[in-house]
Amino acid sequence: MDVGDVFLMLSGVSMFLSILGFVLSVIDPDDRYRRVGKYGLFLSFTFITLASLTLIYYLNVKDFQVLYVASHVDKSLLLLYTISGFYAGAEGSLLLWIWIAMFFAVGIYLLEKKDELNNLSLSIYLSTIFFLLILLIFESSPFVRLDFIPEDGVGLNPLLQDVGMVMHPPLLFIGYAGLAIPFSYAISGLLMRNDRWVFRIRRWLIFSWVFLSLGILFGGWWSYRVLGWGGYWAWDPVENASLLPWLTSTALIHSVMIQEARRGLKTWNTLLSIFTFEFVILGTFLTRSGVIASVHAFGQSQIGHHFLVFISVTLLTSIALVVWRYEYLMETSIDIFEAPFSKEVTFVLNNILFVVAATTIFWGTWFPMIHEAIVGTKVRVGPTYYTTTIGPMIWLLILLMGLCVIIPWRRVSPTKFTSKLKIPTLVSGFLAVVFFLMGYNKPEVISTLFVTFLGISTTVYDFIKDYKSYSVPSYFRRFVKLIVHKRRKYGGYIIHLAMLVIVFGLIGTQFYAKSYSIELRQGESYDIGDFVIRFDGVESNELEGKVIWTAKVSVYKGGKFIAPMEPRIERFLKFDQYTSRVDTYTIPEIVGDLYIVFEFLTDDGVGRFKVEIMPLVKLLWYSGYIILVGGILALMPRKVVEKI
Amino acid sequence: MKSKHIAILGAVILTMLAIYPNPIYASESPTLEELERDLYCMCGCVKILAFCEMSKCSVSVRMRSELAEMIEKGLSKEEILDLMRKKYGDEVIATPPTTGFSLAVWLYPVIGGGIGLGILYLLLKRREEVVWHGEPEELLERGEEIFEEHVDYEEKYDRLFEEEFEKFRRRKREEGA
Lengths: 644, 177
Hints:
- The complex is a heterodimer of chains A (644) and B (177).
- With 644 residues, chain A is α+β, with helices and mostly antiparallel strands.
- Chain A has four domains: 1-155, Four Helix Bundle (Hemerythrin (Met), subunit A), CATH 1.20.120; 162-182 and 190-315 and 326-333; 383-510 and 624-643, no CATH class; 514-614.
- Chain A is built from 21 helices and ten strands.
- In chain A, the strands form two sheets. In chain A, strands 2, 3, 4, 5, 6 and 7 form a six-stranded antiparallel β-sheet that branches.
- In chain A, α1 packs antiparallel against α2 (31-60) and α1 (3-27) packs antiparallel against α6 (116-138).
- Chain A is globular.
- Chain B has three domains: 32-92, no CATH class; 98-126; 135-177.
- Chain B contains six helices and no strands.
- Chain B is elongated, with a radius of gyration of 32 Å.
- Chain B starts with a helix and ends with a helix.
- At the A-B interface, α9, α10, α14, α15 and α16 of A face α1, α5 and α6 of B.
C-alpha cells in the first residue's frame, strides 16, 4: 500500500469520527462530542492535504511507477502542466474536489456559529465528502502502483496543455464543492425545524457561485483559444451539466432574500438547495459514466454508476424529508407578496425563468436517451434547440434585471413605477435608436440592446438616487461609503453589470462574427473587411515529442503592416494527435479579435485557414474580472466595512 | 389603471419575444453556416459540423462539400436536411423535429413557463398573512437577531396558548368535581 493510500485511509477514519462527533453533539449537547467532531475534522483535513501533496510530489518527481502519474505526465512536460496533471484524470480530480471541500468544511467550522444547526450541517456536508472519499479509496485511488517502472509516462493530453485548462477545473471544483453547503444547511434546517439556515448559507453560496461562474468562463476561454472552431460554448452535455447548478444557484441567491425578509418561499428554497446539489453530482456522473457521449468526458469508468446511486439516495432521502416535514414547512411558511408591483414579484419571475431554463437544458440533454428508450430511434438535440428556447428566456431575464432595480421591496403604485421607469426607458430607447441608425437593425439585436441598456440605465438611476441621499462631502469617499455600506445591493449590481457585459459579448459574437474559409499559396493575400491577410509560408520545427508547423501570416490594415500572426498545427508524436493552436490579434476598436486557425497544408503548398472576426468577444472574458469585483464587494466582512 | 399598465407591459414583452428569431423555420435559401449548425459531423467527434475542426477530420470536409453542392443546386433547407438524413441516418440531424414524440422537447419550456406563471398567480392571490423583517441589506447586519426575535415571538405565543389551555382544563376539572 502506498503512503498516499495510508493518508487517504487516515483521512477517512478521522472524517468518520468527525461526522459521528458532530451528530452526537446535536443529540447530546455535551462539548466533548463537538470536540471529537472538531479534532476529527482538522485531522481529516491534514491527512487529505498530505495525500494531495503526496500526489503533487509524485507528479513532480515523475514517479512513473504510480499508474496515475504514468498515465498523465511524461518527462518532457512543463512544470505548470505537470502540476495540473493532478486533476487531468478522474482519480486526481476527485481528490482535488475532496481537498477543496475539506477547506470549506474547516472554513465553516471556523467562521460560523458553533451551535447545533452548524454541527448538524457540518456532519451532513462531511457525509457527502465521505462518500467521495470512500469512492476514491476503494474504487479510484490515484496511488495505485505498477509492478514495473515505465521508461516514460503517457503524457498529458495535448488539448489540456494550456493555461485555460490549468485554471478551469479547480475553479469549477471550488464552485461544485461549495454548492453542497446550502444543501447541507437546508437538510439540517429541515431536520431541526430551524429556519436560520438561510442566513448561514449566504457567503458560501455567493463564494461558490462566483467561482463556478469563473470556472465556466475559463472553460469557454480555453475552448475558444484551443479547440479552434471559433466558438466558446457548444451546448455539449457536460457543458450543459455545469450550467444547471449555476442556473439554480443563481435563482437561490435571489429567492433566499425573500425568505430572509418575509419567511416565505421556504419549501422552494429548500428544493432549490437540494436540486443545485443534485445537479452538481449529475455533472460528475455525466463526465465519469460515459452514459452520454461528450467531448469533455473522462471516458467510461466504474465509479460513474456509484454517482447514480448517490444521486438516487440523496434525492429520494431529501424529498422524503421535505414530505415528512411538509406540515412544518407549511405551518411556518408565510405569504410573500403585498402587491403585484414589488421586487418580490420580479424575484419570483426570475426564479421561474432560471428554473425553466435549467430544466429545459436538463430535458434537452437527456432527451436523446429518453427518445431512444420510448420510440426506439435516436434524435439529437443540438445548439439550435438551446438557442431557440433559452434565447427568449435570457431576453426576459435581462428585462427583469432592469425592472427589479427600480421596483422597491414590498410595494409600489403602478403610477410611481411608470414614472420611475420613464427616464431609463427614454435613455435606453434613444440609445437603441442610435444603434439602429448605425446599422444594427436586426430586430432581435435591437430589442436585446434595448433591454440591456434598460438594465444599465435603471442601475445608474438607482445609484444616483442613493448617491444623492448620502451626505459625505468628498465625492470619492461618498462613492466608496455608499457601495461598501450597501455592499449586498451594489455587489449584486456589479454582478448584474457583468451579466450585461456578457450579453454585449453574445450579441457581438453570435450576430456579427464573420467567418471565412480561405486557401492561400505562399505570398498570396486575401481581403477580410478592413484587413488583408498574407500567407508568407510555413516553418516546421521538431521539438521534444512534437512536430510544429507554424504558418507565417502578415496582417495589413489600410495598406500598412500591423501584425505578424502565427497559427500553428502541432502533432504530438506520442498520441499521434493533431491540434490547432489558434492565434488571435486584438482589434481594440471592436473589443474583439482577428482569429486565425491554420487548418491544414496540402502537398502542393496550399494553406487552408479559418479566419474569423469576433467583435466584442473580449467582453466575455472581461466580465470575469467584474464578477470577481462584485463577489469581493458582496462578501466584504462587517469588520472591514466598519473601518471604511 | 393597474390592468392597463399590465396589459401594455405584457403586449410589449410579447411583441419583443415574437420578433426573436426562430431558427427552426425552414429557410428557402440556406447558407452553409446555417446548415453546419443543424447537422452533426459523422466522424464520431460528437460535435455539430460547424464545430468540427478541419485539420483533424476528413468527414467534415466531405460533408461540407456535399452541402455546398446542394446549396448551389438551389435546394431548400428542408430538402437538404432530408437528403442528409437519408444518407447518414437520423443521427445526423442536430435539431429535433417538431413532430411526434420530439414535440415534447419543444413544448416543455412553454409548459414549464405556464406552470410557473400559474404558481405566481396563485401566490399573488394569496396575500393574507404577510410579514416584513426588513430589506436584505439591513438583514445582512442583523439578520439572525431579527429572526431570533421572531422565533421568540412564536415561542411566547405557544407558551401563552399552553398556559391558557392548562387553565381551561383546570377549570373543566373543577367544574366536573
